[in-house]
């Protein structure tokens, strides 16, 4: 930080005095990089020491550097400000997210159990991802992108977050499936270059599971009735299936 401060001071001084002396751009970049690396290491340490009790919602977790607000809004392809009344015959409920809030306590408990499993897996995921530099690493980027969408989906099951309608959830599931397919392709390219070993066999076995789960998510995302209304009682079907696969996919 001191080196960065010195370089900034020298650069500002040279510009203020209209000095003809050129500013060492590379030296300035190197100093900036040291600050960036320091902040990254602090962030990694925080991620590895945070527990689920520190969080109110999953999306309050440390934001992914690669996913800006613009990227995140595309991640789940939610409907935004356009409100669609999915339950015209039910007073006080317009969207699936509102329906999730008014589920029976029994259904809420069932979903909470799945969400808790997801949160535990996510903590392990964050600790692992924090070990790797995500600059130019498409695999890490895709994994974070998928995790971000999954967090939005877990918030949806509690009546929170950017996902509002059933179609939002379906689109989010499709995005996870698409990203998972890309992840599978990239990882297989790496596996093909690895010498024959038990590690390569394990990697290929995991890839088969990823392909299977992506296929299952894609099929589930085509179901238009993730939240149903039967005899006035709201129950969850497809969302619960997606949550189970999300936990394993991480």
UniProtKB/TrEMBL annotation:
Source domain of life: Eukaryota
Primary residence: other
Record-stated family: Belongs to the vinculin/alpha-catenin family.
Record SUPFAM superfamilies: alpha-catenin/vinculin-like
Pfam family, any one: Vinculin
GO molecular function: actin filament binding; beta-catenin binding; cadherin binding; identical protein binding
Location(s), subcellular: Cell junction; Cytoplasm
Keywords from the named record: Cell adhesion, Cell junction, Cytoplasm
Protein name stated in the entry: GD12044
Ranges that cross the membrane: none
Species of origin: Drosophila simulans (Fruit fly)
InterPro entries on file: Alpha-catenin/vinculin-like_sf (IPR036723), Alpha_catenin (IPR001033), Vinculin/catenin (IPR006077)
Lineage: Eukaryota, Metazoa, Ecdysozoa, Arthropoda, Hexapoda
Single GO cellular component term: catenin complex
GO annotation terms (biological process): adherens junction assembly; apical constriction; cell migration; cell-cell adhesion; dorsal closure, amnioserosa morphology change; head morphogenesis
């Amino acid at each position: 930080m001191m080196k960065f401060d010195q370089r900034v001071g020298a650069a500002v001084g040279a510009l203020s005095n209209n000095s003809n002396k050129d500013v060492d751009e590379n030296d300035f970049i190197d100093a900036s990089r040291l600050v960036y690396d320091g902040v990254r290491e602090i962030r990694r340490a925080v991620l590895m020491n945070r527990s689920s009790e520190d969080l109110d919602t999953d999306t309050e977790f440390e934001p992914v550097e690669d996913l800006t607000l613009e990227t995140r809004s595309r991640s789940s392809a939610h409907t935004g400000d356009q409100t669609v009344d999915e339950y015209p015959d039910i007073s006080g409920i317009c969207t699936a997210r509102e329906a999730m809030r008014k589920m029976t306590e029994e259904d809420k408990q069932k979903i909470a159990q799945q969400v808790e499993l997801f949160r535990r897996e996510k903590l392990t995921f964050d600790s692992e991802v924090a070990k790797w530099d995500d600059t130019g690493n498409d695999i890490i980027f895709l994994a974070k992108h998928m995790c971000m969408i999954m967090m939005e989906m877990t918030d949806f099951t509690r009546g929170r977050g950017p996902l509002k309608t059933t179609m939002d959830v379906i689109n989010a599931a499709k995005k996870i499936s698409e990203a998972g397919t890309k992840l599978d392709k990239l990882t297989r390219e790496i596996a093909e270059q690895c010498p024959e070993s038990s590690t390569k066999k394990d990697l290929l076995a995991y890839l088969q599971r990823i392909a299977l789960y992506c296929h299952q998510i894609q099929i589930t995302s085509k179901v238009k009735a993730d939240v149903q209304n039967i005899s006035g009682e709201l129950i969850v079907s497809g969302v619960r299936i997606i949550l189970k696969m999300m936990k394993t996919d991480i």
